[in-house]
Amino acid sequence: MSTKDSSLNIFALFTGTPNADGESWCPDCVKADPVIHEALKDAPECSCFITVYVGDRATWKDPNNSFRKSPELRLKSVPTLIKSWNSETPRRVTMCTFWYGWNAF
User: Fold this and answer.
1) E strand or H helix at 94, and its extent?
2) What is the DSSP letter of 18?
3) 4-8, 34-38, 55-59: least confidently modelled range
4) Which of 16, 47, 59, 101 is packed most tightly, with the most Cβ within 10 A?
5) What is the DSSP string of 66-84?
6) Which residues are catalytic?
7) pLDDT tens per residue, range 56-93
């Protein structure tokens, strides 16, 4: 099924991998996590939320990290939230967007 032809909303959150204590190494990811999960309570009924861990800090900082190099993703920062990532015009939210408002997403 293509997301273009359905009402399914796919949200993919790219975030730092949790450490042994269960908390991400990424302070921005830790700060954004409760905001994202609270906002998802208002997500459309037909939504799918996926968490993608980008690796530990050293893995993420590697310029050859596959999430940075992927032509489809080209991630520059974490956390990054992508809505309907298979659509022609995916919408991205990075840390800055959280402070300006979720509703625009």
Assistant:
1) strand 91-94
2) B
3) 4-8
4) 16
5) HHHH-TTT---SSSEEEES
6) 26, 29
7) 999 999 999 999 998 888 899 999 888 775 555 556 65
